[in-house]
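BUG: 3D viewer hangs when loading the predicted structure for this chain

Environment: internal workstation, default settings.
Expected: structure renders.
Actual: progress bar stalls at 90%.

Input used:
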Amino acid sequence: MQVLKFGGTSVADSKNIDKVISIVKEAVLRDRTVVVSSAVSKCTDTLIEAAKLAADGNSAYIQLINKLEERHLKIIEELLSGEFKDSAEARNRELFDELKNICGGIFMLGELTTSSLDNVMSYGELFSTSIISKKLSSIGVGNVLADSRKLVKTIPGVQQSTVERDSTEKKIRALIDDSNSKLFILQGFIASDPSGRTTTLGRGGSDYTASLAAVALNARILEIWTDVNGMMTADPRIVPDARTIDNISYKEALELSHFGAKVVYPPTIQPVVSKRIPIYVKNTFEPENPGTLIENRPPEGAEKIKGISGSNNIALLSMEGSGMVGIPGYSSRLFEALARQGINIILITQASSVHTMCVAVDEADALSAKRAIDDVFAYEISLGKVEPLKVERGFSILSLVGDDLKNQSGTSGRMFDALGREGINIRAIAQGSSEKNVSTVVSREDVENAMRVIHNEFFGDNRKKINLFIAGFGNVGKSLVQIIESKRAYFVDKYNKEIRIVGLCNSKGFVIDKRGVNTDNFVPKPGEIEDFCDNIINASLKDSVFIDCTASLKVSLKYVPLLENGVSVVTCNKTANSAEIELYREIRLAAKRGASQFYYETNVGAALPVISTIEQMVNSGDKISKIDAVLSGTLNYLFSNYNGSESFASLVKKARELGYAEPDPRTDLSGTDVLRKALILSRELGYQTEATDISKREFLPNEVMSGTVEEFYTKLEAYETEILKLYKETEQEGKKLRYVATINEGVAEISLKKVEADSPLFNLKGTDNSVIITSEDYPSSITITGAGAGARQTASGILNDILKIN
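C-alpha cells produced before the viewer hung:
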C-alpha cells in the first residue's frame, strides 16, 4: 500500500491536475494507492475571505464565490468532455449551491463561528477531489471517492480539534478492506467531530490526513508531491545554487522544517515518523527527479551537514535581573506564562549566571507575551529584582542542520566565521540538545545574505569574495565598474574570486549595500567621505577594498584609518604618495598594523607595470641607479605632434578637446603632475625625497602661465616664435623634444630635454609614457612603454591591483 499526497500548487489548474493524473496512473500500476488532495491553490484563502465578508454583512462575498466557481468550471471544461464533464459540472454546482447557502446564513446572522468557518473551508478539498476522481474515471482508472469527514474523527481541544487516532485508523482500514478498488481518493485537511459536524485539521492538515492514512494502512511509503524537487540545502529563492538533499533522517528533516523549511510540517508527519514509514518528497512538475527520501536511518554520506533553514518575523524576549541569580522557578514561570497564552517558543538561550534569559517567539505574539510575563513577574519588577520584559523585533533565525553536530569539530566556528567575514552581527546563539542543529539569531535585513554566506561555506565552491568600496564615480570609476561587470565569470574561473561592488561614493553622497550596489541606478544618499569610510569600517566585511578613483587629498587622508582597520586600499590618486614623507610612511605602517594591503600601480603610468617592476627589482637586491621617464601623456602628445604647421596654442586646444588635457591645460603644462610621479618613483627607490627636493625647470615663462585661461591662450600664441625656434633648433640637431623626469643616484629633476635618436624616448608617439630603468643587474636598462593615461587604461591598472589582494 502507498499513500500519495498532492498540495495546492499541484492541483492549481487543469494543466497541473493532468500531471497529477499521470503520476497517479503510474502509481496504481505498482501498488494499491490512496491519494490525498488539497484544495486548488489559494482556494482556502478565498473561502476564508468570503466567510469573513459574509459575517461583516458585505455582499461582496457572493462575487468571490462566483469567481471561485468559474475557476473550477474552467478546470472541468479543460479536463473533461461528454458525460464525465456533465457529471462533474453537476456535482460542482451542487457543492457551490451548498456553499452559497452556508455563507448566506452567515450573512443573515452576521456571525462567523468556528464551526461555520470549518464548514466553509472544507469545500475547497471537496471541489478538487471531485474533479480528480472524475478525470481518473474518464481515462479508465477506477477509483473510490471517499468523504474524509466520515473517516477522520476529531474531539474538541484547547487550541484546536484533536484527531481521535484509534477510530480514524479503523475507519480508514475498513474503507480499504471493504473494497476491491486499487485507488482511493481522500480529501486532506477536513474531518468531523462526534456529532458529525465538519472540522478542519489546521496548518498542514492535508499532510496530516495522508500521514494518518499511511499509518492506518501500514503503507510501505508516503509520497508528498509538491512544487520543488524535495528538501533543499537552502531556500532556492534566496540561494540559487541550493541543491536537493537526496537522503535525510526524520530528525534532520524535522529540524529543518521547525526552523522554516516549508516542504513538510513536523506535527503532521509525526504519525509516520513514529511508525518509521519512509517519506518521499517529490516534484509534481518534474516527476523524474528522484526527490528527497526521509527515513529513519539514511545511508551514510560524506556530507554531515544537510541544510540551512530560516524563520523570519522573530521577536526576542529578554528577561534580566539580579534577583534571578540562584533562585529556582523563574524559567518555569516564564514558560508557563507563554503557554497559557498559546505562544510557541522557537528558541531559548540563557546565560550561565542565570542573570539573563532570552527566548525567541513569533513577532505577532510579542505584545501579548510581554503583557503576560510582566503580569507574572509584577511583584519582582516592583522590587527591582527583575526588569520589565524587553522586546526586540526585526530578527530572523538561521539554523544549520546536520547529524551529530557536537562531534563535528569546527562546524560552529566555520558558521560564525563565515558570518563574521560578511560583517553580519549575531544576536543570539543556541545549539539543540538533539545535536542536530546550531541556530543563530540575526537581523532580518541580513538573513538572506547570511543564508547565502553559510550555504557557500558548507556547500559552495569556497570562492574568495572581494568587497569593493569605490570612491569617485567619474570616467575612471565608471570604466572600472564596466570592466568588473563584464568579466565576473572570468574572475571566478581564472582566480576563483567573486568581485562585488558593495559601496559607491561620489561628491553628492554614497550607497553601501552588503548584497551589492545597483551600479546601473546609482542614487547616492547624502553624506561625506568621512561618513562613507566610517560605514566601511563598521561594516566589518572581510576582504574589503577601498578604491580611490578621485584626485582628492581629503579622500587620501582616510587611508590610514581604513588600513588600520583591515581595509585594503587601491588608488590611482597620487596625492597621498606625493604628500609629505610623514604621511607616506604612516600609510605603510598603518597597512602593517591592520594586516591590510596598499596598492597604487596607477600612480605612475596608468596600467603600465612601473611600480611593480621597481618593487621587484628592489626586493631582489638590485640597485637602481637611474630612471629617465616621460610621464605626461598630455605633454608627449604636444611634443610628438608639434611641427610648426599649426601653433602650439592650437595644438593645446585640440588636446583639451580630445580629453588629453585638463580644462585648464596649465595643470599639465606646468609639469606638476610629472613632479608628483617623479617624487613617487624616487621614494620607491628608497630615497626620503620631498617635493621641494626636485628641480623643475619650466619650459614656459611665468608671464605666459599667469592670468585667466583665455589670457593664457593669447599669451601662448604670442610666445609661438620662441617655441618654433626651439623646435627647429632641435630638429636640425636630429633630436626630439621630450618633457623628461630624471632620477640619478637620488637626485631628481624635471625639464624639457632634447633626446638623441638612439634613446627609447625618441620614437614615442601620441599619449604614450615611457620609463627607462638602469640598474646594476640591467646596465643596458629596462624600458616600459605604453599608454600612460586614459580612463580604461587606469581602470585596468586598478583592477590588476585588486586581483593582487590575497
